[in-house]
C-alpha cells in the first residue's frame, strides 16, 4: 500500500490518535498537513515525526468550528501542495456531564467542534476532490456514537451525527470517485485514558471481549487503509476499532 504523491489533511493531529494517523500516512508516503487549534509544540513534534519518512509535512493552526479558518486552511494547502487527496476529520473535544447538569454552552461547543467542524472541512475539501474526481474522506467517530454513554450526551450526539454525515456525503459524492467512511474507536490507550483510575479501566475492560485496550496504531492502520486505493470500493461504512466493545 502506497500513498506517494498524495496529500492529506488531518485535523487534531498534535497528539494521540491524530498524531498516530499523521505518522501512519507519512510512513506510507503521503505528505501530511496537521491542523491544530491548540498545542503548537505538539503539532510541530508531529511534523518532525512525519518528516522522518522523507515526506513534506506542516502544521497549520485553525479552529475547525469557524468557516473562515477552514476555508483559509484548505486554500493554503491546495496552493502549497497542489492537491488534497485525503481528509481525516479527527479534531474533537469533550465536556462531559450528566444531561441535567450539562450547560447549553457545553453542548454547543462539543457539537461545533466535533460535528460542525467536520462538515466545514468536508464542504471545502470536497470542492477540490470533486474537480480531481478522486479522494478519500475518513471521519473519526467513536464507539460512543454507536452505543451511547451516560454523561456524554453532547459527545455521543456529535459522534453519532458523524456517522449520519458519513453515509449522507458518501451517497452525494460517491459517483465522482470519492470515498467517505467512518472509523469508530473504542477504549484506546492515550494520555487521556492513562489518567483514569484503575477501577474505571477495569470496569470498561469487562465490556470488551478482547479484554484489553486498543493502541493508537490500531486506529491509524485502518485509516491508512481507507485512505488508500486498496479501499477504493469501500464507502459509507462505519468500522469499529474496539476489541468487540460495540457488539
UniProtKB/TrEMBL annotation:
Asked whether the keyword DNA repair is assigned, the reply is: no
Q: Which domain of life is it from?
A: Bacteria
Residues binding NADP(+) are 12-15, 90, 155-159, 188
Q: Which residues form the active site?
A: 155 (proton acceptor)
Q: Which residues form the Ketoreductase domain?
A: 6-191
The similarity comment for this entry is: Belongs to the short-chain dehydrogenases/reductases (SDR) family.
Assembly, in brief, is: Homotetramer.
| Alphabetical UniProt keywords | Fatty acid biosynthesis, Fatty acid metabolism, Lipid biosynthesis, Lipid metabolism, NADP, Oxidoreductase, Steroid metabolism
Gene3D superfamilies xrefs: NAD(P)-binding Rossmann-like Domain
Give the E.C. number(s). Answer: 1.1.1.100
Name the catalysed reactions.
a (3R)-hydroxyacyl-[ACP] + NADP(+) = a 3-oxoacyl-[ACP] + NADPH + H(+)
The UniProt function text for this chain reads: Catalyzes the NADPH-dependent reduction of beta-ketoacyl-ACP substrates to beta-hydroxyacyl-ACP products, the first reductive step in the elongation cycle of fatty acid biosynthesis.
Q: What class of enzyme is it?
A: oxidoreductase
Q: What are the recorded Gene Ontology BP terms? A: fatty acid biosynthetic process; steroid metabolic process
Name this polypeptide is given? 3-oxoacyl-[acyl-carrier-protein] reductase
Pathway(s) of this molecule = Lipid metabolism; fatty acid biosynthesis
What GO MF terms are annotated? 3-oxoacyl-[acyl-carrier-protein] reductase (NADPH) activity; NAD binding
Source organism of this protein record: Wujia chipingensis
Q: Which CDD domains match?
A: BKR_SDR_c
Amino acid at each position: 500500500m502506497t500513498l506517494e504523491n498524495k496529500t492529506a489533511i488531518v485535523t487534531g493531529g498534535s497528539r494521540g490518535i491524530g498524531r498516530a494517523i499523521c505518522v501512519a500516512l507519512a510512513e506510507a508516503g503521503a505528505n501530511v498537513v496537521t491542523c491544530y487549534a491548540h498545542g503548537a509544540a505538539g503539532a510541530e513534534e508531529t511534523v518532525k515525526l512525519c518528516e522522518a519518512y522523507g515526506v513534506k509535512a506542516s502544521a497549520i493552526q485553525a479552529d475547525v468550528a469557524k468557516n473562515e479558518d477552514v476555508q483559509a486552511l484548505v486554500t493554503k494547502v491546495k496552493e502549497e501542495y497542489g492537491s488534497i487527496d485525503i481528509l481525516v476529520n479527527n479534531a474533537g473535544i469533550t465536556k462531559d456531564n450528566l444531561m441535567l447538569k450539562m450547560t447549553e454552552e457545553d453542548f454547543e461547543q462539543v457539537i461545533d467542534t466535533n460535528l460542525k467542524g467536520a462538515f466545514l472541512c468536508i464542504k471545502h475539501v470536497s470542492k477540490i476532490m470533486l474537480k480531481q474526481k478522486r479522494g478519500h474522506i475518513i471521519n473519526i467517530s467513536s464507539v460512543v456514537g454507536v452505543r451511547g454513554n451516560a454523561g456524554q450526551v453532547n459527545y455521543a450526539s456529535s459522534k453519532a451525527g458523524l456517522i449520519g454525515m458519513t453515509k449522507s456525503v458518501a451517497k452525494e459524492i460517491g459517483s465522482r470517485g470519492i470515498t467517505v467512511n467512518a472509523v469508530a474507536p473504542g477504549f484506546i490507550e492515550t494520555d487521556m485514558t492513562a489518567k483514569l483510575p484503575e477501577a474505571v479501566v477495569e470496569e470498561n475492560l469487562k465490556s470488551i471481549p478482547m479484554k484489553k485496550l486498543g493502541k493508537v496504531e490500531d486506529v491509524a492502520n485502518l485509516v491508512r487503509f481507507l485512505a488508500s486505493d486498496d479501499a477504493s470500493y469501500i464507502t459509507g461504512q462505519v468500522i469499529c476499532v474496539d476489541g468487540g466493545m460495540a457488539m
